[in-house]
Design goal:
This protein is mainly α. The chain has 2 domains: 54 residues, no CATH class; 104 residues. Helix content is 82%, strand content 0%. It is built from 4 helices and no strands. Helix 1 packs antiparallel against helix 2 and helix 2 crosses helix 3.
Amino acid sequence: MNDPLTPPPERALILSADSTAPGQRATGFERATRAMRMALPLVQRLLPLLDGNVGSAVSNLLSPHLPPPPPPPPVNLAPMQDGLAELQAEHRDLHSQVLEDSASLQRVEDKLELLSEATGRNTQAQQEQSASLKRVEDRLELLSEATDRNALGQRALLEELRAIGRKANTLALVGLGLLGASILLNVMLLLYFRHILP
């Protein structure tokens, strides 16, 4: 911002160029030149009126003539470059971490696939074992039925053997009775013949 006490650069140039030594009178040419120089900024602001730009001419008249802004101070890019280097390093670390995570996920997927295959094989083996157990159960049931039939047959055979044993006992008793009777008859005959034949 300009100091109000400091004249604008154009006026400072005009004053420095037109200042004459004290005690010397300015000539008419110098006075005319000084007037033209002082009117020059006003003429520059009124020139757009000749082109038909009334708005820009009025704005030129109303706006103060400001000097161009000073150039911006040089920007220190070292912190930004350091931050960019850190971001690149973090990006590389993150990229390597993503690659490691991808490899880990791939290994997990492979293990899950192997586990799924093993589970399928186990399921098939369990189904086969279940079918084998069903066949064994059927055979055991048949064996149980055969055992029951054998037990019934054995009971019937025992009963028949007992009946045969009872019949055999009866026959044996009859046989023993007959044997005893024949022995008794023989003894009686022997005694009879001894008695007859002296």
